[in-house]
Amino acid sequence: MGENIRLFRIADFPVKLIFKGQGRNGMQLLPSFSKFVVASENEVKEEMLFTLYVDDELKPIDKGRRHRVRTFDTGNGDTVVDRLDNGGYQFIIRDIDGCDCCLLIANKDFSDCQCALNGSFRMRNFGLNNALMLIFAFAGCSKGALLIHASLVRHAGKGYAFIAKSGTGKSTQVSSWLRYIPDCDLMNDDNPIVRVDGNDVFIYGSPWSGKTPCYRNVKAPLGALTRIDRAKVNSIDRLKPVEAFASVLPSCSSMKWDPDIFNHICDSVTRIVERIPVYTLHCLPDKEAALLCKDTIVR
Questions:
Q1: SS3 of 272, please?
Q2: Euclidean distance between CA atoms 54 and 103, whole angstroms
Q3: Chain centroid to CA 143: how far?
Q4: Which is nearest to 246 in space by CA: 228, 281, 223, 273?
Q5: What does the mean pLDDT of the chain come to?
């Protein structure tokens, strides 16, 4: 049975993907990863962040060896999570129609994973992309990397991330920066990656960007994090460290029931808010809000 090995570099981490067999799975399922491809394993000197084997022969773990955590509504479908007796996890990733797209089995630190895909091209694309995003979030957290739900603009060489609940206006704020503020470009519109490296904090584009096709392999120092809050009058507040922690944490992909993973995420958020200013922008969806924000957070 043949293997097709592919390497990527995401947020400066090398990852390996191995397609097993000669079936319907391959790079055609991952067009958003084209900018992240590593040409040769000789280019990779460090240990892989994770390896994922894609093998449609994979079967679910016996029920006696797994225990249901819960079923999560991701907004794009449900994900069923089981904890395994060996400390690892099993996930069933379903699409918005409730169809099973991917079976994913991971070890405890998500460094070694397997998945089986199911259904049409659309279902396989959805299942594999979501599996990879999930694996990266939880493999990376112990290395100081956080996958956050944010829109990300770069201005004058620094990245400025806007966080909020879906539909609150983070993409609108970024669009205003792109329209009204010179020297700006969009780095990612849904799932950038923040990485703490010593005393430095960087933010990266990623292969995951929601409904906006912005899959850029780019990196910048993180200038600020800003939570968007709709209001009738434009104003902006810099948050104290405890407030900043509480503002940033809900935007991070997390598993609160897993103490090791959750502690890694909390530690990284703490290190970020100690180094990077965090704001709340109370705003209307207008030009003046973008200019007020820019004049306050860009230093």
A1: helix
A2: 10
A3: 14
A4: 273
A5: 95
Tens of pLDDT, residue by residue over 98-121, are 999 999 999 999 999 999 999 999
Which residues have a Cβ under 8 Å from the Cβ of 154 and sit 6 or more positions away? 160, 184, 185, 186, 187, 218, 220
Amino acid sitting at position 253: S
pLDDT band at residue 272 using 50, 70 and 90 as cut-offs: very high
Number of helical (H) and strand (E) elements in the chain, helices listed first: 5, 18
The whole model's pTM is what? 0.95
> For residue 1, what pLDDT is reported?
53
Separation of alpha carbons 238 and 247, rounded Å: 11
From residue 106, how far is each of 7, 81, 130, 254 by CA, in Å? 19, 11, 14, 15
In this structure, the strands spanning 112-117 and 50-54 are parallel
- Residue 158, C-beta contacts closer than 8 angstroms, at least 6 positions apart: 220, 221, 222, 223, 298
Closest of 250, 230, 238 to residue 278, by C-alpha: 238
Q: What is the mean pLDDT of residues 216-242?
A: 97
pLDDT in the model for residue 166: 75
- The pLDDT tens digits for 135-187 are 999 999 999 999 999 999 999 999 999 999 877 788 899 999 999 999 999 99
Nearest Cα to 228, choosing from 169, 172, 181, 175? Answer: 169
pLDDT, residue 153, reads 97
Number of Cβ within 10 Å of residue 100's Cβ equals 18
Instruction: Write down the residue that tokens 């993409």 correspond to.
Output: 171
Give the tens place of pLDDT for each residue, 53-62. Answer: 999 999 999 9
User: Which residue in the block uniquely carries the two structure tokens 């990485």?
Assistant: 195
* E strand or H helix at 222: strand 219-230
Burial class for 279, CB neighbours closer than 10 Å (0-12, 13-18, 19+): buried
